[in-house]
Amino acid sequence: MTKFLRNGLVPIIDDLTATAAELNFNDTAQAGVAVASKTLVLGTNKNVDTLVIADGGLKLGAAAGTAVSATAAQLNRTVVTTAGVVEASKVLVVGADKNVDTLAIADSGLKLGTGAGTALTATAIEQKKSDAIPATAYQTGMEKRRFTETATAGTYTATVTIPANSLVVDVIWKNTALWTAATSATLDVGDADDANGYFAAIDLKTAPLAATPTVPTSISSLLEDTGSGAYKAMQKYSTSAQVITATVVTVGETGDAGRSSLFVTYATPTAVAATKA
Hints:
This protein is mainly beta. It is built from three helices and 15 strands. The chain has a domain at 141-267: Jelly Rolls, CATH 2.60.120. A hairpin with a 5-residue loop joins strand 5 (111-112) and strand 6. The radius of gyration is 40 Å and the shape is elongated. The model is unreliable at 226-230 (pLDDT under 50).
């Protein structure tokens, strides 16, 4: 409470220890505007125009808070002009569609997949080899199935699913070692339309001859080799998915030497309408 005036000018307030100079720190020109050597008074939106804080001096969080250790220069790396546009020495901010315009990645630096991912080992030059492929084209795919003879008679089966709107380019069978069943080892390859349309009743005990490092031997449906079925050299196209099935039936099985592989090559092109003049 005010008791009296000292020298008739200055009021004396109980427990007030601040000096006139200290009280004058509160003489700020405008709320929300920081003034040197003056008390900081926030604006109506708890705002202040400019506040200088030393690196490491800002703390966030409850209680004593956690110091923001990033320097001003490091924080400034987050200042990007446009999301989705890569800027040198700035944080990468993806666009609305999780996109970026141009990103330089060193060869083998790109990884795909879950966890740590798998490095894409193709170099930029190797990947550019696909530039000449038209957008409406499709690279040829190939699938392989292995057959290993065991010393028990039975039926070996392998399937290859061809995507819809695909063309079967070729079906190839290769023996690494001839089969040794005592009575017979017979191969058929076909699909739902014809169970032996590609190869019918091939005797794997005698054909094709086993391939060697210097003599690659196989039978091809494309070349109408011995044993080709009803499709002959026709490359079958289907608007629905196809399943090619290869079966080897052994009778009187006592050996286990047979080793073979089935290769199916196919392409899935994009149709382009013809023009009429």
